[in-house]
Amino acid sequence: MAAAAKAVTSATLMHSALQCNIPLPPNPSTYWYEQIEHNGISPFIPNGSSWQVYRNVKDYGATGNGETDDTPAIQTAINYGGRGPGGNGLGTTGAPAVIYFPEGTYLMSQSVQSFVDTFFIGNPIKRPTLKVASNFTGSTLLYMKDPDLDATINFYIGVKNFVLDSTAYDPDTAFTIIDWSVSQATQLTNVLFRMPQSSQHTGVSTPEGGSGTYMGNLDFEGGLYGINMNNQQYSIKSCTFSNTQTGILISHGFDMVFQNPKFSNCEVGVNATSGGVGNVGSVALIDSTAKDVAIVIATKSQTVGNSTTGDDSIVVDNLATSGVGSTVVAGGKTILTGSVPRTWIYGNAYLKGGPVMGVHDAGVTYQTFRSPLLLDGADFFTMAPPTYQEYSVHQVVNIKTVEGYPVYGDGQTDDMYNINAILARNAGCAITFFPAGTYLVSDTIHIPPGSRLVGEALSAISAIGTKFSNTDAPNVMVQIGLPGQIGVAQISDMLFTVADVLPGCILLQINMAGLSQGDVGLWNSHFRVGGAAGSAVETKCQDFMPCKAAFLLLHLTPTTSVYIEDMWGWTADHDLDGDYTQQISTGRGALIESTRGTWLVGTAFEHNTLYQYNLVSAANLFIGMQQSETPYWQGTGGPAQAPAPWTPNAAFSDPTFANCATDGPNCRMAWFQRIVSGSNLYIFGSGFWTFFNNLGACMGINGTCQDNACEIVGNPTELNWWNLNTRGNLNLLIDDGVVLETQNNNPGSWGAVVAATLTHSGILGRLARRLRRGILS
């Protein structure tokens, strides 16, 4: 490792930030990303310092004139440098490429094949159009799934800022615009899918499955299906479906959350009947509108003979309808009509003071409450990923080109001092662009109010050194604001990781709140511990006992208000860039203590040792689709039983697993979610999956892998938890030490599903008060 280039403290340049008078965004006609210097690299491959990350398709022969076939040029841009399936010998992370499209119309005569670690980016000011030619050869325009890798390991892929147009192609021939059979750390956003009306075309399809997290801000016009979903779980946010026969078809999926969809002139909004292809665990429809739609949701009946199942659970929360025939049809029978101003449930429910085994709601409306801190009008707040297209290139600073403060991003040099100096100078003055690379830091990176950071192909900030080595005194790698600070701090397209085994490293801590919702936010930003070149964790964590590689991934402190969309917190369960068998232990996933308004939209935390999500005295929190898996090495026969190899730290509200026997391996496994006190907590769609005991078959009771999935401690108030899905878990939920929900009583989804957990909600109390006042009959 090279020494730090220049020891400059943040205070050195702080005065310049205070003197900065940044002009209003000028709304330029040219996108800053197209003009800025592109000097990103891939540090951990041969000749990586000269690796070309940024590829403007016009530099490879594309015309964008709408007449010339641009397919060969686009494929050449993707393949340049010897890129091919599965990383082509360079690993999943070794050959990143941004395929950039300036404005124009790019005529396409045949399919384009993409690979892992590829990001298609269009000019958001004037979105480029990829237009399917009338003589197109093939059935799919963009194959974004890497053909050499299973869908469940297709990570680090993006498509944003496009118009994708199939209107010139035969409407009677089946056609798919994007094959999106991908998984976590992928982003599909700001795309218009334009298809012929009454056609056999599909906008987005996932035919090979995957383990997805998020897509959003998409518009679908015409076509047979907007989205044909065959994937484990998904958060799909802010999408419109106009003149589409079926907006969303769920061929298969366990945990589906649709937030703020708008359906107009559709036959069916959401078809959740699976068509006999697979099964559907649960669907949540939040803050939606339907106009001139025959059926908003079609599902299967939960009643089979004289019994009911948890499969096909439906939650409809805040739906406005106009010109709609049926709101919900189950098994061919209409069971709901009209708008749903509150929350309507079809599935198993656990109520305060209700039956121990829960009740089956065959269509029940609850008078729910929402915290005003989380709302934009009547809806839960959402925010599209920022592009900063309103700013000129003169208002964006490439962090590697600041005179006098060299930053390398080469995975060898300690860039900490100069990154801090530049961020301090840029605060309130400029957007900071991190070209592709790995930026090593030996101490905390401080992100002050007034900061906007943008990465490229998931630029990595990676911890090194003794500051992060002490388990008993953990240190923060990236810190957003100080407690009580107010302002703007936004991060897009970045990765947080460790370059070594660092049991005292907290990768990201957020302390700030904004003056407005979304002022503090992260989009398409992720964590990775091990599993890739550039981190000694890949080679050092091969011993039988899992090694303590990082302390905590994400910490939201009590003074935080933050909007987070599309985030994957991954402790590696396999190697992306080699063939090392790693036994990695990150202590904790996400510790959430925020109180001032926090939104988690499409997040996943996986394979962390003590827990994946730990909500401690949190308040005013919205969670829309969360997904987790336990460490594969835990359980019967495994090398360690939680909390080992860690010692619980009360300062971080760690679980002690005192509820388990001393030798209880399937009890001493990571909690998926703990909720310790708190208030105003709204959770829509949890997908918590346990696959293994010590990388082998499940060895627990009734074929389960794990005894307990989630726990509630204390008495949180106004906790509304909708659609809790589990796999391989004997008990879904323990409430203050008492088993509340079991797989046996709630079969469905990938193992079990409960549509409504309201044992700590004020819903029933409000109903009782309304009854006493004579408001309800």
Automatic annotation (TrEMBL):
A GO MF label: polygalacturonase activity
Entry keywords, A to Z: Lyase
CDD domains found in the cross-reference section: GH55_beta13glucanase-like
InterPro entries, alphabetized: Pectin_lyas_fold (IPR012334), Pectin_lyase_fold/virulence (IPR011050), QRT3-like (IPR039279), RHGA/B-epi-like_pectate_lyase (IPR024535)
Record-annotated Rhamnogalacturonase A/B/Epimerase-like pectate lyase domain positions: 54-271, 403-459
Signal sequence annotation: none
Pfam families linked to this entry: Pect-lyase_RHGA_epim
Keyword Lyase attributed: yes
Protein name: Pectin lyase-like protein
Provenance organism: Mollisia scopiformis (Conifer needle endophyte fungus)
